[in-house]
Records
---
Amino acid sequence: MIEQQEILQGIGGDLLGFAPEGWGRLRYEYSAVAKYATDSLTVEYSNGESEMVDCPVTVLSKLARLRAGMYQEGKGTWFSVEYTIERPSNYSVDFNYDEYPDFTFRPSPEGFADDLKTFPGPRSSSPIG
């Protein structure tokens, strides 16, 4: 649990390091199935505008470690996470354990099967069929 908090704080630090001037909220989304992963970082500015910006690559390895470390026998692990930081330093993290991510690409059926082998849990079928 302590290591999970350290990883989450490290991710927050990485995201804050990428925050442009005038930001009000950062919303980072990450989804993973086996070796497939996708992420996005949306910046909402104090003036109400928003844009997607490049994500710090250092976050990816931390999230892979976090995903593996949060695996629980019989439950599996999460598929996606939304990490939100609101200025000045409030943050929230929401994990999705139940719904397969809505990728912009579709991992192969083998990718979903590999994920279930790596992180066995109650979900027994791939959304691909």
---
Amino acid sequence: MSLTFDRERLLDETGCALLAALQENARMPFSELGRRVNLSAPAVAERLRRMEDAGIVRGYRVLLSPAALGLRLQAYIRITVRYGLYDAFATQLHDMPEVLNADRVTGEDCYVLKVAVRDVEHLERVINAINRYGEPVTSIILSSKIEDRPLLPS
């Protein structure tokens, strides 16, 4: 059986309902998931194992509030990395706990980073740390209208 066929089969109506419920609450017991999608708890466990094996479900995590952890300021930083510094920049990003996301992008910029910091002074230190790799452009996030939107197969 091909991996593509298995993915399509796993993403039927029941599979999509299971994914929606899990994204609502990843700690939901298999028995409750089963009630929601009309499967037994063992069938839910088996379906989830197959979704994990197929790479559909990559993991389960806790979503934390940066503000509750003292990181009251978030920002996007766009940067065009200077030629020859790509590997060093990627290494630098991995060593910076403030970096929540680092997306390699097309267009004028090379990367778009999302960072969480305590305050403006902390943000300045983050910018200074990456400044040697290129010219960063920073936008402070005032509010988020959509966060952690659940994904569903199209």
---
Amino acid sequence: MSSFLQSFLDPKKSWLAAMHMKTLTKRLRKYGLRYDDLYDPYYDLDIKEALNRLPREIVDARNQRLKRAIDLSMKHEYLPENLQQMQTPFRSYLQDMLALVKKENAEREALGALPLYQRTIP
């Protein structure tokens, strides 16, 4: 990626990226979600594999956050203000494992091995 594009997307350097991140943080806090909760395991099988490798407690907490967000959305409500302030939308739990899965897949491809799973549209 070019350095110009990286600097444009970096919230520390670009006011537009910082404003987008602030807005996204506000929206995620309203429902008690984290950014990694937005990844869909049915869309990308690497994400599904990364979620399978995570500890059960982390996956259960993710599922509870998603259920709570769906419930709040259906009721047209938000979390109370005191709970919104406790939320940490950009604390990542999936990125490290996802990077490991992508690295392993790239290594398998470089060695000429068959993929572990075939990508199909669900």
